[in-house]
Amino acid sequence: MPELPEVETTRKGIAPWLVHQTIHSVIVRDRRLRWPVPDKIEARLCGQTILAIRRRGKYLLFDTAVGTALLHLGMSGSVRIVDTAEPATRHDHLDLCLASGKAMRFRDPRRFGCFLWTQNPCSHALLRNLGPEPLSESFDGDYLRGKAQGRSLAIKQFIMNPAIVVGIGNIYANESLFAAGIHPKRRCSFISKSRMQSLASAVKSVLCQAIQAGGTTLRDFRGSDGKPGYFQTRLDVYGRGGKPCKNCGAPLTVVILGQRSTYYCKICQK
Fold first, then answer.
1. How many C-beta neighbours within 10 Å does residue 208 have?
2. Rounded to an integer, what distance in angstroms lies between the CA atom of residue 137 and that of residue 3?
3. What is the reported pTM?
4. 215, 179: one domain
5. Given 90, 147, 216, 222, which is the most exposed site by the fewest CB atoms within 10 A?
6. What is the pLDDT of residue 218?
């Protein structure tokens, strides 16, 4: 599933083509996504100018004067900028056609993504209970330590909870915990404030590096230019179970934690 760096890579790729452009028409070929595409979204968006494209967690927000469209890429979704006349393929479910002659085309083979409408994104059911952005100033060791008090949750599951902090999926949770030297199974309330600060800094560093590399492509993800992300070439632990740790040389361990594959070094992470 695309995580924060992949969604941010997508946002940066499409924004120059879409912001300040007028939507000429909306083509919905299949409304059967994770939630049905609203019936009236064509009428609401047609003729509107896209004022900004924002990201909240793993959601892209397309702001207009009358409301906001929410896009989630799901597990296998991607968007591309194409010429309006370019023929659609089987899994191209939706186009935002612009007056410029270009279109943003949403492709989603598994149909786990969504394209929804809201007049108040802050109160939308999918967004209103989300935690802070991990790249914001409000996300730091003090915040994590405060939220961890009285909780028995493993730290990896804790930082993957979108009500605690948004956008940290499995890949980047593994990488951040390795960078901070924290064992993924350690109870979050047992971690000191200074180590929580190390973790917050590691999260920011790992995410920024991944964004600069265009995200991580393990199977499906492609950026808006159709190119894969390259952060997978820099992964220290994710997907490397049994291989030597890049720090100490010990074989990396892989276990299932919270139904997700979890990779770590028994020597370097305490």
1. 14
2. 20
3. 0.90
4. yes
5. 90
6. 43
